[in-house]
Amino acid sequence: MPMSSETTKLPFKIKLSYSMGQIGDSLGYNMYFFFFLFFLTDYVGVPPALAGTISLVAILWDAVFDPVVGHISDNMRSKYGRRRPLMIMAALPYSIFAFLIFNSISLGTQATFIYFLIMTILFWSSYKFFVIPYFALGAELTNDFNERTTLRAWSSVGLYVAVMVASALPPYLLALFEKSGMSGQLSWRIIGGIFAVGILLSAFICWHFTRGKEIYKHEEQKNNTMKKSSLVKALAQIVKLKPTKFLAGSVFFWAVASTMAMGGLIYLMKYNLGYGAERQSLYFIINSLVCIVWIVFINKTARHFDKKHVYACFLGIGSLGLLLFSMTGFPSFAILLIFCVVFCLGDSTYWTLYYSMMYDICELDEYVNDSRREGVVTAVMSFSQKLGAACATWITGMLLAFGGYEGAIENQSESAHQMILYVNTLMPGIFGSLAVLAILFYPITKKRFYSMMTALHAKRSHKKYSEEDFKDML
After folding, report:
1. Taking Cα atoms as reference points, which of 259, 316, 294, 256 lies closest to residue 439?
2. 339, 326 in Cβ contact below 8 A?
3. For residues 46 and 109, is the Cβ–Cβ distance under 8 A?
4. What is the pLDDT of residues 205-224, one digit of tens each?
5. pLDDT at 254
């Protein structure tokens, strides 16, 4: 299968350095989705429906802001490239607001709502200026169909290292600090500070060691022949691309499933299963290790078969597992671990392959529209992901309230227990099934992508080419 000489393989150092940026992204992201709702309901005293609304508004703002940041990143011109200046400028405020959102204050219900709404909006805004350029940078480091999967596999390992830290460390530290006599509010403040430092360090390492490694940077500076367009036009052109619609739909639905299933675990383990901090931390560590093992298998499978088919198959298994486990009630820790293995196959596949599939749309954009807009392509997918996550946190808060959950009491009602179970299993399983259905219509395959790249290389050189082998992508 022909492939142009422009294909770029990546050395170990770059893959490792790029994955550090994923740690910076995922420490704040997962700390938020694992514990922010729980922190508001159980330590600040915000009613669950109101806490869910704070997340909904803040994350919707983040989602709407995605295309703006992507467009700014695509049109930035500097000797340091289009992505890395924004990444380093955003790293410090991102880490500061990651600290501030876990600071409890007592200002009354209305003032507390306003405070946390402002802090979360600032948190997600600064996060966005780091993460959109970071993900777009991945498409500029290599244009090889399989190498992009491997790069994302490395990043996914970084993601689950961060997930392990962000999920297992807070319950352990919280129990440790409270046992020593600290208040829960002060304990969360210290935990927020620890994570802020981790975000800043990992973001700097990624920024520093990926300097000058973009494959398109120098060519664009010497002769920028790409067409420029307004944000509205860029969005319209990218959304019009056939693969964008189906990948964005799948990303949205699994974001709902993943956020509900993972964010609800702290409620499930504390109230339904009665697990203390040590058992909770143990589960989250096992969860992350299982995901890392799955990533190795997913990467090898996706290099031999089409990413699309691997993605659909493994998300399907994860979704089926969620639906089946809604009927078990998790009678033992062993059953919870089986749930972990099945769900993590789908979730690890999502976080590993959807970015790699997203990168392939960037070359299609260049072929169809004569523009390289990795930032806006990334923003469209990030918008879908954040919209799904926002809906998930709002739905979770509303369902908990409907089930009669009260954060101020230790023993929840039977209806609250049942709703917590459904938030972790049945509802995510339904949304996960919709994610699988959407991706079945995604048209980019390895054969079609390589044929398009050959045509794109010919088009750049003003030579003749044919669209016959990849017309289904257009």
Report:
1. 316
2. no
3. yes
4. 999 998 888 876 544 444 44
5. 98
The two tokens of residue 444 are: 């980019």
pLDDT digits (tens, 9 = 90+) for 303-360: 888 999 999 999 999 999 999 999 877 888 999 999 999 999 999 999 999 999 999 9
Structure tokens that stand for 417 in this block = 């227990």
What structural domains and CATH numbers belong to the chain?
17-209+242-453 (1.20.1250.20)
CA end-to-end span of the chain: 20
For residue 100, which amino acid is it?
L
**What are the structure tokens assigned to 90, written together?**
């955003």
Q: Are 354 and 52 in contact (CB under 8 A)?
A: no
What is the 3-class SS of 409-446, one letter each residue?
CCCCCHHHHHHHHHHHCHHHHHHHHHHHHHHCCCCCCH
DSSP-assigned letter for residue 226: S
Q: What is the dihedral of CA 254, 420, 278, 160, to 10 degrees?
A: 0
Q: What is the pLDDT of residues 387-405, one digit of tens each?
A: 998 899 889 989 999 999 9
What are the backbone angles phi and psi of residue 82, rounded to the nearest 5°? -90, -25
Burial of 116 (0-12, 13-18, 19+ CB in 10 A): buried
Angle at 412 between CA 410 and CA 417, to 5 degrees: 135
d(CA 209, CA 207): 6
For residue 336, the Cα-to-chain-centroid distance in whole angstroms is 24
Residue showing tokens 């964005």? 248
Residue matched to tokens 């509900």: 260
Joined together, the tokens standing for residue 315 give 């998300």
pTM confidence score = 0.82
Q: What gap in Å lies between CA 463 and CA 471, rounded to an integer? A: 18
Q: From CA 120, how far away is CA 62, in angstroms rounded?
A: 9
The answer to whether 102 touches 123, Cβ cutoff 8 Å, is no
Ramachandran class of 81: left when φ > 0, alpha when ψ lies in -120 to 50, beta otherwise: left
